[in-house]
Specification:
By secondary structure, the chain is of the alpha+beta class. It is built from four helices and eight strands; from the N terminus they run H-E-E-H-E-E-H-E-E-E-E-H.
């Protein structure tokens, strides 16, 4: 009987979350309505149960001034790619390399759902997490002083297509740097 009750309770909770109906444990009944005591909408609760972060790739980093090549899937862009579908321009700068890299770091830290994983004097690895399903993209920046540019590579960990998110992210960062006065 206890197993049946546990199963019923679990199913009730799952159905409650899927339908977006407040769980009685998080709600207060008044004579007019139900007040939900939670910090995020109940329609997003089911998505919070799942995380699509994937495994961090082993191929991250710079080797002899080069990122790992983009995979065959269309969910990666790189300033070092020769494939026009995957190529983005590097981030140019007109300040000192150190100031440009610090501006980039400041810009990244101002963005939501970002985590700087690795930081050296000329390299950043940043994880960007999507708001809805928790997809994680790995974005790498390499300060290439020989080219007066910051090389960039942005790749999704999971899935085939990213619906252009990686390219849009790089271009958004470029625009933010331009607004700060960098050449980008």
């Amino acid at each position: 009987m206890q197993k049946l009750f546990s199963l019923f309770s679990s199913l009730t909770l799952v159905i409650t979350l899927l339908l977006g109906v407040p769980n009685p444990a998080y709600a207060q009944l008044t004579s007019y309505s139900i007040i939900v005591n939670t910090s995020f909408p109940s329609t997003l609760l089911p998505m919070a149960l799942f995380s699509f972060s994937g495994k961090r790739p082993d191929s991250l980093g710079v080797n002899a001034g080069q990122f790992a090549p983009c995979p065959n899937s269309p969910n990666c862009v790189s300033s070092q790619s020769s494939d026009p579908d995957r190529r983005v321009e590097p981030l140019a700068y007109n300040s000192s390399p150190e100031v440009a890299f610090q501006s980039l770091k400041t810009t990244i830290q101002s963005l939501e759902r970002t985590k700087i994983v690795t930081e050296t004097e000329n390299y950043l690895h940043v994880e960007f997490t999507s708001s809805l399903m928790g997809f994680v993209d790995d974005v790498e920046f390499y300060l290439n002083k020989d080219k007066n540019a910051i090389e960039v590579r942005s790749a999704s960990r999971l899935g085939e297509s990213d619906l252009g998110v990686n390219r849009k992210r790089v271009e958004s960062i470029r625009t933010m740097l331009l607004d700060l006065g960098a050449k980008a």
